Amino acid sequence: xxxxxxxxxxxxxxxxxxxxxxxxxxxxxxxxxxxxxxxxxxxxxxxxxxxxxxxxxxxxxxxxxxxxxxxxxxxxxxxxxxxxxxxxxxxxxxxxxxxxxxxxxxxxxxxxxxxxxxxxxxxxxxxxxxxxxxxxxxxxxxxxxxxxxxxxxxxxxxxxxxxxxxxxxxxxxxxxxxxxxxxxxxxx
Length: 188
Prior knowledge:
alpha/beta, Alpha/beta knot, two-stranded antiparallel sheet, about 35% helix, transferase
């Protein structure tokens, strides 16, 4: 059984330093099957613009909020769901992913930008590591969601949007969504 909803809480975003990284975390959350993305503690209109542009062009129904108090959001989340904190100090993803997948309630995935306060290690039901070496929170999020969905997220279809990429062995092929046919895909 899988959770009803998966949200990603981005903690510690620094607008002048992290806009590309946070935008990429948002893109991964959307593309890899999250239902929502929460930008905690700060309002960054550039991130919101990137989100709106992506959804307008490529589709999807990702809930987006920003400026919420991360600590309060996590505490409230615990009333109806559970929390996974992605950290290189946690338990190996492969040792806990089946248990997480079987929980059957809403899941909040916490990823940090700056040094993460001890609060998140304590409030989390699972501190999960995708490797125990320094790495990107974007990579950790992508690998975690891939393990969670067992690769099925690579084939999710997003509703709405104007464009669709046609798989192609060489080059690029992007077409308006309404004109796509599975026969357009180039086969190997």
